[in-house]
Amino acid sequence: MPTINVQLFEGRTVEQKRAFVKAVTEATVATLACSAGSVDIIIEDVKRENWATGGKLWSESD
């Protein structure tokens, strides 16, 4: 059973998340030849202050 963990900046709507998990599930089923019911997707909303790239917090980006 594939489990897919995704971290995103917070602020996505439920509709966006719904469309995302549908698309990822469909791609997983097609690629891994598994059933949709076996695909788990965990979405973690992350505040920009808790994510950094290149030594700089995203909350401090221009």
Automatic annotation (TrEMBL):
The active site is at residue 2. Keywords: Isomerase. This is Tautomerase. The keyword Isomerase applies. Residues 2-57 form the 4-oxalocrotonate tautomerase-like domain. The keyword Lyase does not apply. GO terms for molecular function: isomerase activity. Its EC number is 5.3.2.-. Gene3D superfamilies: Macrophage Migration Inhibitory Factor (3.30.429.10). Belongs to the 4-oxalocrotonate tautomerase family. It holds the Pfam family Tautomerase. It comes from the Bacteria. It is an enzyme of class 5 (isomerase). It comes from Massilia psychrophila.
